[in-house]
Amino acid sequence: MTFTRLPKTDLWHKLPGFMLGVLFLYFNNVLAQPRQVTLTVYNKNLALVQDVRKLKLQKGVSELRFTEVAARIDPTSVHFKSLTAPGRVEILEQNYEFDLVNSQKILQKYINQKVTVLLSEGRSIEGTLLSGSGDIVLETPKGEIRVISTSEVKGFNYPKLPEGLITQPTLVWTVRTDKSATHNVAVEYLTDGISWHAEYVGIVDEKEEHLDLAAWVSLENRCGATY
To answer: Which end of the chain, N or C, is more open, meaning fewer C-beta atoms within 10 Å of its C-beta?
Structure first.
């Protein structure tokens, strides 16, 4: 008996997508309640995400913020709808905030504002930050201009996190509804960074009459969110 192994490319054409359902994941998020996420993973490092959450919408105009979304999202693909009462929720504005915080961005946001520079020798200097590119340029309360080499700087103290910087990617909607109510809302979007591949193992019996075919599918998630 002759056994011919079917090429993987033929099998892939017969399997255009792999469905993975993750039901009722719970997160400590002030907006998100019980959550249901469904992924449809396609070829070419692309996935469709449907994220269903239960939210309390207030009458009038309010803002909704969705955290725990993919960092590699395609913002143009985002779609929001209420599953409970689609006709009662109007989307006024939609934004994707992705300016994630890091030390250099904080420093640049504090140009022309007061900071405390911590020096490696244990001292600190307070003043208005004039430049954070290369050496640190600081104007002291006495009006003196101090240029501090980066090799002398141990760190900085800032009063608060600057506006516009966030700790994780966030989808933001401004919505309007005619009454306060709890809604199941569905958010769908495309993201790259999620891929899948399959391996097939075929075992022929001793008489070479039957084939036991096993398939394993592996998912790789590099989109920046956990599902």
So the answer is: N
In this predicted structure, the answer to whether residue 114 has a pLDDT above a threshold of 80 is yes
Query: Phi, psi at residue 114, to the nearest 5°?
Result: -80, 135
Residue by residue, DSSP assigns 21-51 as EEEEE----SS--SEEEEEEEETTTEEEEEE
* Ordered alpha helix ranges (H), the chain: 8-14, 103-109
Structural contact between residues 144 and 128, judged by C-beta atoms closer than 8 angstroms: no
**What pLDDT does 178 receive?**
94
Work out the mean pLDDT of the chain and round it to a whole number.
84
- How far is the C-alpha of 194 from the C-alpha of 38, rounded, in Å? 13
Q: Is pLDDT above 60 for 227?
A: yes
The first and second tokens of residue 61, run together, are 């105009």
Above 90 in pLDDT, residue 167?
Answer: no
Let me know: does 39 contact 69? Beta carbons within 8 Å: no
CA dihedral sign, ordered 103, 109, 111, 116:
negative
Domain edges within the chain: 8-100+171-221, 103-157
Q: Tell me the per-residue pLDDT of 30-88, one tens digit each, with 9 for 90 and over.
A: 344 568 999 999 888 999 999 999 999 999 999 999 998 999 999 999 999 999 999 99
* Alpha-carbon gap, residue 85 to 211, rounded angstroms: 52
Number of C-beta neighbours around residue 216 at 10 A: 9
Going by C-alpha positions, the residue among 96, 97, 108, 126 that lies closest to residue 189 is 96
